# Entry
Amino acid sequence: MKNEKDIFDDIEIDVSAIDAEKHAVSPAVIKRLPRYFRYLRELIRMGKTRVSSAELSKMMNVTASQIRQDLNCFGGFGQQGYGYNVNYLYTKICEILGVGCGFRAAVIGAGNLGSALVKSPMFEKRGVDVVAMFDVDESLVGKRLGHIRIFNVSDIERIFEDYAIDIAILTMPKEFAQETAERLTRTNIGGIWNFTGKELKLESDIVIENVHIGDSLMTLCYEIARKKDNGDSSAK
# Structure
């Protein structure tokens, strides 16, 4: 009987192949990766050392076959008849998601949403360090939210360079989003996390992730309304 270390010594992962395949991975698979991250964290907190695709399937409401296909996009990481080493798989998912890259972020817009995001523990859990905030309100400029200083938006280019910012988080009113994003193209950021509701268009290789909280609410409302309609129809 092989011990756990021997089993995972048998797993050969071609890193160059993983890098080559990253560009071919479908958006649907990429969208599921953070879910693997969350559920594996939960398993680690529970003290689980290994998990099968069937067990993950029950937790995530995704078929076991889909889980195997997703993970095979990046090299597999499992052993037939054994499943997955939870800590090992978690480490690999973290690497794929860039958790250990030390990304630094800045929030532009120090209102209610921006302040709430900064106070959230999600950044630390995902290896992102929020190091600055920006606002146009002079009564906020110079103050701190926790350890994070609020700067004037006029200083975006200088502060982004000084602090080596990788990610800009936009939480200002939507009418200023496009102008701000265009300013950000003059910095060295890699991505924009956009909460403004404005669909940004940039002639740049900056990655944009648009978050529409209202869309999620409307999806929920649709499902509730459909369930209610189906219930009314069956009662007739």
